[in-house]
Amino acid sequence: MNYFPLVILYCIKKNKGERSISSIYHLLKGKRSAQTIQDAKLYQTFHLFGVFPLLDRNELEENVFLLQKKCAIESDSDNSFVITKYGEELLTTFSLPSSLNGWKYAQETSIFWGRLSLLVQVCSNLMNHETRYIPISRDVHLLQWVKKYLNNMSFTRNDFSQKLYNEFVNVLENMDEVRASIFVSKLTGHNRIGSTNEQVGEQLSLSSFEVSVLFTSTIHHILALTENEKNKYPLLSNIMGTSHKKLTLTQSTEKTFELVNQGYSIEAIAKIRQLKKNTIEDHIVEIALSDEAFDISPYIKSDTFKQIEECIMRLKTNQLKLIKNSLEIPVGYFEIRLALAKVGSTNAT
Fold first, then answer.
1. Phi and psi dihedrals of 275, rounded to 5?
2. What's the pLDDT at 346?
3. Tag placement on the chain: N or C end, fewer CB within 10 Å?
4. pLDDT tens, 199-235?
5. CB 238 within 8 Å of CB 119
């Protein structure tokens, strides 16, 4: 079976029939909504967040149909599916790169690769005294960034090229040959055009989806190394810049968080922002999911939290309705979602 259907099958297994196909689509696309962020955290699929930003909904549904036709999944309810025994067998040889971390690097991936690949092209042509070539990007902001970066260097461009090459070698030498080859193949230089995912796939007998995942995981690997060892990778660190930050809150939730920190209640925030109370509650849950230190005690009593926690652990589910119906005390969905945010995923294994 091809790679992409296996990615979908993996997500279905992690979701345990508790989420719809739409949730998988939003996860892989990297939709920054409270629900998608909550799903990624609760079902331990955060590493796949935003891995396929250009994914077409029809393509996803076609592959779901294929999995169903091959009896790898079975329809459950509400447009959700559960994995079959045969589906489990298909996943025994499937794995995702350990360095893949869409939750943390989804926003930085395209920015970092854009800067890096354009820098490599510019320097390669400068080294070969070539001034007439077509830049791989027409993005004005990116072109300006590269121009400014090169003009502010404290050493010659020849030295820069050699230093950047050395950092590349250090990064890639401990990676597997396939991922290193994919990364190098996609670089554009003097009289050399970087390959597309489809072209690399043909060369290595891989699907374009697998090439995409392997390449993205390589970028995430470089970003993690650069973040943790800035002194060892000073050039890559500068290219990474200050635009990097861990994915945390949606823009609307950030505004709510500011008011929360000022001591406003949910009702007061809803009035100030002219939003529904339920929307502000969504924001509070998102904050709790993103910030482990966030205090939820103003929104849920300690004994209520304890009973919900015990229920979650006993049932081993994230389904709100099932948890609510199993509790002996009257509890709202908001409180259950808060408890889930703090208890964590029941799908970690």
1. -125, 165
2. 44
3. C
4. 999 999 999 999 999 999 999 999 999 988 989 999 9
5. no
